[in-house]
Amino acid sequence: MGSNNVDLKAQLETQLLRTQLELQAEKFKVASREIYDNISQVLAYVRFGILKAARQYQDENLETDSQLLVQVIRDLRNLNVHLDPDEITKKDMPSLLQEELERIEKQLNITTSIEVKGQPYALPENAVFIIFRSLQECMQNALTHGNPQNIALEVSYNAKDVIFNLWDDGSGFQIPSQFVPGTGLHTITHRARLAGVAINIQSAPGNGTHVTINCSKPEPDDKNSDS
């Protein structure tokens, strides 16, 4: 009887986590659609008006402002790609991570690097989404709290699994004995468990942070793999 209760609790917890993930994915879709359909369109109209005024009055400052808006629109579209789960799972993992690191380096003037070892292969869509989000959140945590100057990522494709190693040289933090529900680290580890992904976070004050994510290679007949 006790074993059945444990199994039932595990099933309910897994279903709850799955539902939470689906709801979050839908929120990301709505947010990305709002950015792409509304905000970018409004900015495009604003740019058109500024460009028209710049030509009418031959104002170089307005011309410069117009070009800045072009960059803002481009950045918003890139953000849209990294918010929409459907867009995330369309791309291969190395390309996704390369784009994310380039975005960080460009916007925050931080040195980033990525090294891919082995021959890349497709991973299940749910794993792609969760791994990308987990790495994205770990990088964001480092940028928000650790003030790093360097972020390095290594992706190793092996015969049985893919291993992601993320390092930053920020201030680091004391790893709690147990992650508090509702916090970013708790959410990351729960997501990983839902997708069957192993994640390990190592950090200490003054020593930066090292995140390791391990994802098993999918079986050949797995139909839910990214292309």
From TrEMBL:
Catalytic activity: ATP + protein L-histidine = ADP + protein N-phospho-L-histidine
One Gene Ontology MF term: protein histidine kinase activity
UniProt KW keywords: Kinase, Transferase, Two-component regulatory system
Signal peptide span: none
BP GO annotations: phosphorelay signal transduction system
Keyword Ribosomal protein: no
SUPFAM superfamilies documented for this protein: ATPase domain of HSP90 chaperone/DNA topoisomerase II/histidine kinase
Enzyme nomenclature, EC number: 2.7.13.3
Superkingdom: Bacteria
Name of this chain's protein: histidine kinase
